[in-house]
Amino acid sequence: MKYSLLILFILSLIACEQTELSWHTINAEIQKKFPEIERITINELNAKDHANIILIDVRKKEEFMVSHIAGAINLTDPFDIAEIESESEKDVVVYCSVGYRSAAVVHELKNLGISNAVNLEGSIFAWSNAGLPLVNKAGHTRDVHPYDEYWGQLLD
Q1: Angle, helix 23-33 to helix 100-111, in steps of 10 degrees
Q2: Are strands 117-120 and 39-40 parallel, antiparallel or unpaired?
């Protein structure tokens, strides 16, 4: 019995690894899970004056260190983000790798009464895939932390 369960588990993992990710599927799942949050596209963000927004990267520090969108602040706790937002009149744009973690943070910000927070659709992966600029402590870079091999499929 244990052997059968182990084989079933291994086959499930193999099937998951062979599944191709698509932006359509990812964005639909985020919309389904967090229907109340607003989104902004990478093109809309790129056209905005970044001096008028608070750009929050909610990825882990290791991911942020590889690259991030210029001007982004690396925070993961919604309470910390809410504190920064309360001291400003600026809109808040939140991003992660593909938009799921950031959608969850925007959801929490809405629960905290922060109504001007939006999720960056496609997040840093879509930003990078469009050839938009990224930075790290050394300056400009094209590198992006893939999160892991599975999610890294979405990086061009």
Answers
A1: 20
A2: parallel
Residue where the block lists tokens 């993992």: 13
Contact between 115 and 144 (Cβ < 8 Å): no
d(CA 76, CA 60): 8
Q: Is the pLDDT of residue 150 over 50?
A: yes
| CA pair distance 122, 144, nearest whole angstrom | 13
Cα–Cα distance for residue pair 46/127, rounded to 1 Å: 9
128, burial (CB in 10 Å: exposed 0-12, middle 13-18, buried 19+): buried
What single letter denotes the amino acid at residue 86? Answer: S
Chain Cα centroid distance, residue 9? 29
User: What gap in Å lies between CA 10 and CA 34, rounded to an integer?
Assistant: 31
pLDDT tens readout for residues 115-135? 999 999 999 999 999 999 999
Task: Output the CA angle 50-40-76, nearest 5 degrees.
Answer: 75
Q: What are phi and psi of 77, to 5 degrees?
A: -95, 120
